[in-house]
Write a structure and sequence with these properties.
The chain is an all-alpha fold. The chain folds into 2 domains: 11-91, no CATH class; 100-132, no CATH class. 65% of the residues lie in helices and 0% in strands. It has 6 helices and no strands. Helix 2 crosses helix 3. Residues 93-105, 113-118 and 134-138 have low confidence and may be disordered.
Length: 138
């Protein structure tokens, strides 16, 4: 027996699912004890039966709706990160690094030189260097 794949949820069905989930705050709880997990499972079953009663087409299983909810959350986090990174690119300083020789050979000389030129620039440069996993020269 091969399981037949259900058609994807329509936008209206997704909106209904989100509204139903929002009306059940227990699903947003981060607690993972046995009683709370049982309560969440019961809530997903109840939510699925009410969802299936609202739609006329293919009935869904609790696992399908739960997976759809997880995928919606993942897509929202990804979109949020993309927006944040885009805003960071727009507001950050141009990526023109100061040459090390201009600032001296050791880190203290560089810190004092950079802080004199522009306060806050050192923190930005150091953060970028840490993110790129590059080492400061000795």
């Amino acid at each position: 027996m091969s399981a037949q794949k259900s058609p994807p949820l329509t936008k209206e069905e997704v909106m209904m699912l989100v509204e139903l989930i929002e009306s059940h705050p227990v699903l947003f709880s981060k607690a993972t004890n046995a009683s709370n997990n049982q309560l969440k499972e019961a809530t997903w079953t109840k939510l699925t039966s009410s969802f299936n009663s609202m739609i006329a087409s293919n009935p869904r299983k609790p696992e399908q709706l739960r997976l759809k909810w997880e995928n919606l959350k993942k897509a929202a986090r990804k979109r949020s990160t993309k927006i944040r990174m885009n805003n960071l690119k727009k507001t950050s300083l141009p990526s023109v690094g100061l040459p090390y020789k201009m600032c001296g050979r050791n880190r203290k000389q560089m810190q004092s030189s950079v802080q004199y030129v522009m306060p806050g620039l050192l923190q930005t440069i150091m953060r970028r260097r840490r993110n790129e996993r590059k080492k400061w020269p000795l």
